[in-house]
Every structure is written in C-alpha cells, then in structure tokens.
User: Fold this.
Amino acid sequence: MSQQPYEVFEHTADIGLHAYGSTLPELFAHAAEGMQSLMVSPEQIRAQVSREISVEGHDPVSLLINWLNELIFLFDTEYLIFRQFEIEALTETRLQGRAHGEAYDTERHDLSSAIKAVTWHEAAVERTNDGYRARIIFDI
Amino acid sequence: MGNSKEKIPLERVDPYRWRIPKRFNSEMHIPGMVYADDELIEQIVEDNALHQVANVATLPGVVGYSLGMPDIHWGYGFPVGGVAATSVENGVVSPGGIGFDINCGVRMLATDLLRDQVRGKVDKLADELFSNLPSGVGGAGMRQLSSGDMRDVMVRGSAWAIEEGYGFSEDLEVTEEQGCLAGANPDKVSNTALQRGLKQPGSLGSGNHFCEVQVIDHIYDEAAARVMGIERIGQVVVTIHCGSRGFGHQIAEDYIRLAESKQQEFGFHLVDRQLACLPLDSEDGKAYLAAMTCGANFAWANRQMLMHGVRQAFASVFGRKARPKETPLVYDVCHNIAKMEEYEVDVQMQQFCVHRKGATRAFPANHPVLPEKYQAIGQPVLIPGDMGRYSFVLVGAEGSMQQSFGSCCHGAGRRQSRTAAKKSMSSRALLDQLDAKGITVRVHSKNLLTEEAPSAYKDAQKVVNVVHNAGLAKLVARLKPLIVVKG
Assistant:
C-alpha cells in the first residue's frame, strides 16, 4: 500500500488524526497506532504485555471510537501504552482485537501529548479509492 | 486549520458584540451572539468556532442566543467558550456541551505574604508544591479510594475531602455550590468510570491544568478586592486549575455514547454527532445529570485536596499553619458544567438548563445563591490567562443576567493549535523565556509545556476587557505568574 498509515492534522484546542487502511481491520489497527504515536513514539515502546480487547458499537464510527477509548481506559487504569495491534474479528457492530505494549515509564518514555478522550466531533469512517479513511479528533 | 467551510455572516451589534443571524442555517432555532472586539473577532473567524456557535443553535429547545465568549475557539461539538440555555419544558442536555472534563474549574487562595517575603524561597516553594501536588500523565493522586469512599466523594464533593482532613469547613462557603451539587446518583455512573477515578483524587493531571503562585500586579477595584482578601499590590496568591480527571471523562464518554445511539429514537438529527443530546425530561437525560453531578462533586473534592497540598507547602516553607487564616480560599468556580438556573424571560422567571463549556458563572451582587461575604460585590470570577503574562480576577455584573445566562469567559482562549505551538518553540527556549521573566517552572513533561506556550493563547487582557466593557463582569485585579507547576 502506498499511502501512509496515519497523519496528524491541526485543531485549535486538541489534535486530529487521519488514519488509512486498505481494509477495515487495517484501518482500525492504524488508527490505534496513530493515537498511541501521538502519546509516545512507537520506537520507544516494547511489546512486553498484551491485552485482549473486545468492544461493540452501532456503526463503524462508534466502533472505532469505542476501540480507541478502550486503549485510553487501559492507559488511565494500568498505565499501558501499546505499539502493535491485531484485529482478530471485526463485524459492523463488534470488534475483537489484541494490543501489545508495556507500562508507561517516565524514565524511558518521552511523552509528546496526553490524550484524554476520543471525541465524536466530525468523526468519520469513509470509503476511498484505496480502501478506508478515518477522521478522529482527540481531547487533550 | 479547518476554516474551509462556508463563511459565517456576522452582524456587528456594538463594539463588543457580533450576531450570527438565524438565516445562516435553516436548522438554527435561535441566533448566535459572540462577544469580541474588532481585534479578537479577527482571530476568532480563523478557526471553526463560529460554525460551532451556529451548530449549538440547532439544539432542541435552545433559547435566547447561542453564546460565544471572547476566549472562544474551536472545540468539539460546542466551541470552547460557549454558553447555551435550554428550556426545561422541551429542551435537552447535551453531554458533549459540558465536555469531557466535567467541572473543570479554578480556585484561588490569598496569602498574607508579599512578593519580597517569598523572593529568597521561590525554588524551595516550587519544589514543595511540585512534590505535594501529584501531577502528570499516568500519575496517581494523593489518595487511592475504595468504591465505598468513591460513592461518598460523588455525593458529597468538597465536604468529603474536608472530613478526611483536606481543608476546613469555612472553605465551603466560598466554593460554587458549596463544593457539592445536589442530585448526585452514583448508580448512574459506570464501573468503568469508577475504575478510572479510584486512583486519581488529589491530582492535577496534564494539559492546560496547573497550579500557579501569582503576585497581585494591578488592582482595578479596591473595594471589591478588599472583600476578597486582596489587600495590596505585591500580595502573593495561588491559583489551581483542574477538574474531574479520567473519572469525569469516562462519565462524559459513557453518556455521549448513549445519547449518540438514541438520536433516532428521540427524533433528533444534529449536524455534529458530538452534540448528541438527551431530553431533559427523559430517564436518560435525568441519568446523565445525576452522573454529571457525581463528576462535578469529584472535581470539587479534587481541587479541595490540591488546595490542602498548597497550604501545606506554604506552611512548610514559611513556618506557619496550613489553615484558612493564613491562606484563605477566595473562591472556586467551575467552567464546564450544566446547571438548572432561573432567568427572567418574557416577563416571568423560568428555569433553564444552562450549558457552560469553557465559560464561568458570573452572578452579580445580591444574587440569592451567593455567600453573604460576596452579596455586596458579586461572585468572584477567576480568569487564568497564560503562564507568561497575566491572569485576572473579576466579579459578576448585572449584564450577565440580562445577556448571557449569568455567564462570562473562562480564560484567555487558544489562538494557536497545539501542534503549531510545539513547532514554533522548543521547550528549552520556552523555559528560558519564562526564566527571563522571573517565572520559575516545575513540569513533569517538558514536551507538553510548549503546547501551553503563552504565544499559543490570546491576550487575556483583551479578553477580560471585552466582558468588562460588555457589562458581563467587572475587573477587580490582575495577577502575574511567579511559579508555575504543571503535569
């Protein structure tokens, strides 16, 4: 695939992300990678622990938001940051996946943004010529 | 920045007010009104904030004007600096219109110290504050709570913290809602939210949250200042800005998700999914308000605990007691909240659900809910500017009751995106710049500091001048930063 997995766009108070994927599972994995990369650069994250994640939604946008929110929850409660994602099963309303990463360590991890929530503002999952594109704005 | 949308028509009402007419968008139920002078409006039209003012005007049951304060900027759903009131008869509550950080707010303490008395101890005080106030990303707060304790926090707010030894009962009188909004129901809060909250009481967090030691630099209204305990130029005060942490974020997220999934059921077709709303008279709407109240009370307990950490720092550095006599709380205001309040519309008092998203309550003198201490001057309005220039204290004015559902601005307001702010200056250069101004900084993540660079914000002086001149609030004092503590 020629396109990049994700790119950041500007927002006055917060931060936005476009994610791309040739398939929906790839889009969801790239969106998660993109969100994590806003916090800590992936090269600094070791895949030492993994978590099974299962979320539901009523359409692709809500499913994407819930998937990303689950990662924020794991950061807030267990301080986990991830670098690698596998989407094991994905339907219109349900996602099952696995995230690999480690606990955030102020000594080793250089935090570049603190993401607090995923917003619905102008959130979108769209078909493109190359597959799919998602647009998400995060609350910082 | 996202300014490619249709240009918003703006009608100049007077030097401080701009109307967005209903004709802009057929979905608008009411016009918009934005408070700004000629210079601020030029910055405001640069991002999507005005489109968001128009979007808010499409909410079911919204009344009066969809308001934008002079610190307005592009947020999510509502603009930051947005105010909207909905009718209790046929109106809604929009969880996104309160925002993720429920009861994010500001409190200020006065001290009996002058700048000269602090001069030789600035570093020691900064270190003490930094160690007393847990901050930063992924950091735990002062206390880890059991689920039972959390229920108490949700229902009782600041009073819980005081009973646990964080402060004194006289702090309550000078806290908005006495630090506890009625109607909390912990059963309406998810276990997920509870889990996120358990470790976080007594923590600053990150982003734009901070604790600042400041010095009174200018007094505009000596009589009002004196009532607040602000006696002279050079007096040291302390400001804390934070909210309900992950707990409030999860409550917001849970109910935005719920509202979003029910828009069809309620027959709503909103222009932005983040605006998803719930009828005030529905079970879901009531459940959100009961859960939001839990989040608000958690935030008050949080600020109360942090204030105690500040008092202890001053006690330890200056050899005095950590009590209100030496460090009295001036006031605590919230700026992300929905409140049921009464206003005169069509010659009769009616109740409305007032959404304040990055906007401060600004009740004038003689308002019945104000403490006796502030009956004669009005409610203190605390407006942090940026960490390099200044912050302000105002009091609510009569105009807020007539024009803005008892509200005014909440800060300087961003003018530059976080990404642009980061690109424009290195953290080293920013620290040097602050150091040259005599500002001592303690921060966990230097990378995050540049997002909050003074140049990323509008000039707070211009913002408060607008609310002063428009009659929403009156200027009382200006403060300059001395120590900045951030996550």
About this structure: The mean pLDDT of chain A is 94. The first strand of chain A starts at residue 6 and ends at 10.
